Amino acid sequence: MKKNNQILIAFLSIAIMFAFNACEREAEHHDLSTTDINLVINSPTDTQEFEAEDTVFINATIDAPSEMHGYEVHLMRLADTVEVLSKDVDLHTNHFTIKETYINPGLIHSDMELEIKAKIDHNGKSTSKKVHFHCHQK
Hints:
Blueprint: H1 2-30, E1 38-43, E2 49-50, E3 55-77, E4 82-103, E5 110-119, E6 126-135
Parallel strand pairs: 2-6
Antiparallel strand pairs: 1-3, 3-4, 3-5, 5-6
């Protein structure tokens, strides 16, 4: 019985060491400032126009000097404030390449707003950029 207690204590000690190590690594995110993030939306471009059934290619990059928490992509149709595309990625790295597509169904003539948000940490610290473009109706 004494041997089982020693094994349990050893196991718990190792688990606690891993937990503290994970918390220390998480602190890296808190060292980043929003000004450290380089977020570039390559496409679509501001004021670009898309006909019905055109494909909108969403291409962006996010770079930072150290690990970030992830990113979000939001595409909103402004005529009726409907979010037509939403993606939330939780991937810890210092570089993201974003490649998404949206096909304009041509249902509504509307300005569109694309927002890409770089999530710096688990506490909600972030920075974002927006691009506005236009989708035509059939």
